[in-house]
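Q&A log
Question type: sequence-to-structure
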Amino acid sequence: MKLSAKWQSILALVLVAALLSGCSYFDPNVRKQKYYSSGLRYFEKGQYQEAAIQFTNAVKIDPGYADAHFQLGESYLKLQRLDRAYQELFRTVELRPEDYKARIALANVLLMGRQFPKAKEQTDWLVKNRPDDPATHSTLSNLLSAQGDVPGAIAEMQHTISLDPYHWELYLGLGFLEERNGQPDLAETNFKKVIELNPKSAAPRIVLGNFYLGQKRTADAEQQFRDAIAVEPKSLAPREALARLLLITGRKADAENVLKQAERDLPNQPGPLLALSSFYYATGDMNNALAEYGALYQQHPKDLQIKKRYIQLLIVGNHIEQARTLNDEILKESPNDQDALVYRSQMQISWGDLDRAIDTLQTVVKNDPKNSLAHFALGVAFERQGTHIEHAEAEWREALSLNPDNIEAQRALAGAAMRLADMTTLQNAATEMIRLQPGSPDGYGLRALAEINQQHFPEAEQDIQKALAIAPQRPVGYIYLGQLRLAQHQFPEAEKAFQAALDRNPNLADGLRGLMSAYIVQKETDKAIEAAKAQIAKSPNNSAFYDMLGSALYLEKRDLGEVEAAFDKAVSLNQQNFMARTHLIQAHAARGDIDQAIALGEKSINDNPRQPDLFILMGDLYQRKKDWKKAEDSYQKALTFNSQNPVASNDMARLMLSTGANLDLALGMAQTAGQGLPNSPAIADTLGWIYYRKGVYPMAVSYLQHALDLEQKNKAPDNPDVHYHLGWAYEKTQQPKLARQEFEQVLKTTPNYPAADEIKKELAHL
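Response status: OK
Response body:
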């Protein structure tokens, strides 16, 4: 059919339009502008990853497109990818040197990376070219503040405000600087000025409330948070701030009610459910935390981040199978999802599949070195494996450097600090735990333990009372109260505190251990034995209780058969109670049955191959048999778990002395031991005896005298070896009177000392 002239004309117009449209598609200027405009729309919606993709497309078309480089840098800044942000902003300045906004953004990125000289290059340009711009002096204030020049930063911020007196953010920055500079009155004035300039926002009131909280003006802080809720009733932030204050001040029920009210007032929002779950987690109520987060997950089953957080909570709450099901769903869709691989590794750790967990986690941290949770889990795996224990602590510290709010890493670091008697690290970790979970007694209790060990008793008392106020029905506060009273030699009060802990949990090993310690310190070991028997009657299947009973019976010098029976029962109830196994081995050794002790030790190692203390014990047993080679092998195996193990290092050094090994090597081992346990009299004795053998007699005297001082300070039993060694050191330094005193002390306390004949001969000579 032939088209009419009219339709031929219309068709021609359509074809022309299509051709014109096609030409515009191939025009690079049009294409780059489309990508740029699309990127701006994503940026305004807060979709920074999508924005970055569009701006990247724009600069691929035109590498000299300065606007796109700038916006790409801003997108990377929002995504916390500082290296990429720096590259794009630096490129913007290269393309457009007069772009002061790019220079300001570049200076701030450099400040975040603490590259102060390069940041100063940008502020110098701004001061020279835009001396009257408020942003210039605000940026310079940031630089001075980052460098520690707070007075200079304050002066620059004041100058900024003089140029722009109506910008409320400037008063906020000035207030923070004045607070940091120890000028709380001026800071308060400026925080109030922020509220005056921004009266309909809750945020300035929250800032002022937090300031009051830091000043311990809790009533003023509470009023600000309540005012913030009134100003923005649909905002969750002021409600969370109020709940946190109520928790800190011991009003747990009120804090819970605030968050429950938020759930009612802000329906169909994930925030309140998340806040309430976090509250329960922070206060140790894992069941309610899981219930709230489970409800949140049911409302948002397709939200991947909510699902992942729920899996984490399930793992912490030991609901492993449920966590596994959800995690397998993620891995089925995305086999290389780094978070899901970490969660699977955490579950493998709980099953004891440590080698596979470590392999996976090492791959994750290689591919994603900033994954805090992966570093934390890798540390746990190293610790459980027993090898590279020093690496475990390094992984936890790395996890915290990446995410200071990782409370589980803080908790793990605190545990490591307790094992190493590192009270400074313990106190710091506990303080961070308090910051992250102010409604949990755990952080207060651990900080109190550090304070007790440093004899800071008033501070410990305050923290313990806080723990008791937060959780009066939990035993944790009473345990630490008992330890404080023990340290203060208030023994009846210590007994009451430990008994209160046992009343709340009859199966609590720490409670019975503390109660028995209170009796033993008072030389009432018979009462300690009766306490153990009474608690066993209440909890007859508690392996730790039988272990403690055996230890007390041994102290009381009861029949060794009775002692062994208690330890044997402890082991039969829990094959993994390696401490009870150790005590059973030591009981056989005490009876002189070294071969039986060694046989039990070898069996225990087969059952617990990752317990370095068992290898150390075996080394001691082989030394008693004068089997130097097997003793050395045992100590070496212990050192493969932790090359810095102070006990194994000291024992190895003493073995070297017995076998005539290289004294310099022995000295190195003993010095390593001393770094790990600087207050150990045994290690000081080893060092002193090595210096004696090396002929450095004044140093020998110094270390051996220090060993005696440490024994007295630690209230340790009198060690005849120290007196024997010091006697010879005095003899070599021409102090015969002091030498005689030390030798006589050995014979007085230990008449059957192995070197008694040698000592008597030397006394006759003296």
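Response note: The longest helix spans residues 5-25.
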